[in-house]
Amino acid sequence: MKRRLIIAITVVLAGIAASYLLWPHRTVDSVMNDFFSGDANRAEDMLMDPLILHADLVKNRVIEEVAVRTMPKRRYAIGFLGVAGITDALPVLRTILGDESEEDYFRADALESIYRIAEEEGLALASQYQSRTNHLGWIAEGLINRSHKPFARSYAQAAVGHHE
After folding, report:
1. Quick check: 140 and 129 in contact, CB under 8 A?
2. Distance CA 96, CA 102 (A)
3. Residue 29: which H helix or E strand, with range?
4. How large is the C-alpha radius of gyration of the chain?
5. Which residues contact 53 (CB under 8 A, 6 or more apart)?
6. Helix (H) or strand (E) holding 11
7. Torsion 107-109-112-116 (CA) sign
8. Averaged pLDDT of the chain
9. Residue 32 to residues 53, 79, 132, 149: CA-CA distances in angstroms?
10. Residue 122: enclosing H or E segment and its boundaries?
């Protein structure tokens, strides 16, 4: 009995070690490249999957790059920060939201992400924008009256390639 247990544990550990050695190791650059130019057949709800699957690896790069207005797929990167609950992103998200020269849809995305990370703060900020007659105002009003549900995607959905 003891011998079978030892053999079983050895087989499991060997499998884990083999999968680790065979699984491609990702770098920040490889994940970001996958995000920017990845699978052309990736549906819109799956665009942030590379970031979700490697959140701890890329979160600092994403925080840095969303501050740049010309970042490719910036809306999805801003959304990822909220979906992944990256609290370190709150300062850059607040900056995007508060910048009147930003497009209203980027500001709305930042508001949604703030709401996902810190709901009370998101609601307080939404109250400042709910009277606007643009996309930002519509999102703010929807968050306050709970008619708008921010995009959500789990690690499990990203890992299996689930498509809505």
Report:
1. yes
2. 7
3. helix 28-37
4. 20
5. 31, 155, 158, 159
6. helix 2-22
7. negative
8. 89
9. 12, 15, 34, 27
10. helix 119-129
DSSP string for residues in 60-74 = HHHHHHHTSTT-TTH
Nearest to 112 by CA among 66, 60, 151, 58: 151
Report the predicted TM-score, pTM, of the whole model to 2 decimal places. Answer: 0.84
Do 107 and 96 contact (CB within 8 A), yes or no? yes
Per the listing, tokens 């990256």 go with 86
Residue where the block lists tokens 């499990």: 156
Place of tokens 């701890």: 56
1 SS3 class: coil
Q: Tokens 């994940």 — which residue?
A: 31
The answer to whether the CB of 54 falls within 8 A of the CB of 60 is: no
Q: How far apart are CA 66 and CA 81, in angstroms?
A: 10
DSSP 91-120: HHHHHHHH-TTS-HHHHHHHHHHHHHH-HH
d(CA 120, CA 99): 21
pLDDT under 70: residue ranges of the chain: 1, 5, 8-24
In tens, the pLDDT along 76-113 reads: 999 999 999 999 999 999 999 999 999 999 999 999 99
